[in-house]
Predict the 3D structure of the following.
Amino acid sequence: MRKVLVIEDQRDIAGLIGLHLRDIPCDVTVRYDGKSGLAEAEARRYDLLVLDIMLPDVDGLDICRRLRGKTPYTPILMVTAKASELDRVLGLELGADDYLTKPFSVLELVARTKALFRRMEALSRGEETAQEHPIRCAGLLIDPAKRHVALDGRGVELTTKEFDLLLHFARNPGRVYSRLQLLDAVWGYGYDGYEHNVNCHINRLRAKIERDHARPRFIMTVRGVGYKFADVLERQPV
């Protein structure tokens, strides 16, 4: 049974999350403050961390930062009452895998949790990285096995979802994707109204890998439809 740690100071919300994740089923542990939650996350291995940003003692962003410097990798689903774009982007930049803003639906919570489990299971089986050659395109190097990206020989630091999105594009050069299709393919769900997740990640990717944001070479906008990656790729042997 998968083990989930919920760090949430609002007991009613923590109870609701625990109730529905146990139905998946999951073995759920709950902590109500940042200090004890961080200690628990560091003491035991969990398959998922559901993490509130606003916590007593140690906030969720600090916990996320601390845990991302450690192994093994634990997926983090951040939850917050803050709805500003800055809060979302900061949480994702620190290494959160996904983001929920209160109030959220139980169906959405369960769908995102299952999507994260599927992603980690695929990675553990090696389905996404096994024996795959690095991909090169106009100075951009993507190494799926090492989850490494470099531009003109310099390493590019990407969050988990930024890398997943870039790799999905690079594996399908020239194919046009709508935002909902990208949500399904990379996040594992497709809810109307959550296309901002895709927009946010594409904007951040472009800021990191495009030399000229006004004239992108790698991730291009197809007006009225969505996005596509550069048509021509050179696949290099390992």
Notes: Residues 85 and 200 are 9 Å apart (CA to CA). Residues 2-125 form a domain with the Rossmann fold fold (CATH 3.40.50.2300). The two ends are 37 Å apart (CA to CA).
